[in-house]
Design brief:
The structure is a single chain. The protein is an all-alpha fold and 129 residues long. It has 6 helices and no strands. The longest helix has 27 residues. The chain is flat, with a radius of gyration of 21 Å.
């Protein structure tokens, strides 16, 4: 159980998702007899497990780097040097989601999404100097 505590949060999340999707795919396939959904669930589980394995291997290799970064973050937090949150970055992300959602919905959704992205990018440019 000590080995599990040493893993990063991302490794645990993707590992849990992988196990969940594989179990759900097996359950779904045994009762639904619908192979497309079963394949998608199983492949989602496999993809999540691949990411978990990759993150776990990276955690082993970069454990000293992670300790140094953690010490720097704690030092910065002690001095009050936390990174600034930017509403412009959030606006860019929301605008991209809206613009992509507009692909099946139509141009009337794409245009506001693109406007939000451009407004967010201009805000980021203004913040940077």
């Amino acid at each position: 159980m000590g080995r599990l505590r040493d893993l990063s949060v991302g490794t645990k999340v993707f590992g849990s998702l992988g196990v969940y999707f594989v179990a759900l795919g097996a359950f779904y396939g045994s009762f639904a007899y619908e192979w497309a959904g079963t394949a998608l669930l199983l492949l989602s589980g496999v993809a999540s497990l691949v990411v978990a394995i990759w993150l776990g291997q990276r955690d082993e290799v970069d454990s000293s780097f992670n300790e140094e970064v953690h010490a720097e973050v704690e030092s910065a937090a002690a001095h009050g040097e936390l990174p600034d949150a930017s509403p412009s970055a959030l606006l860019v992300g929301i605008g991209m989601v809206v613009a992509i959602a507009g692909l099946p919905l139509g141009i009337w959704v794409i245009i506001p999404g693109v406007v939000m992205v451009l407004y967010g990018v201009m805000g980021m440019m203004a913040e940077s100097g």
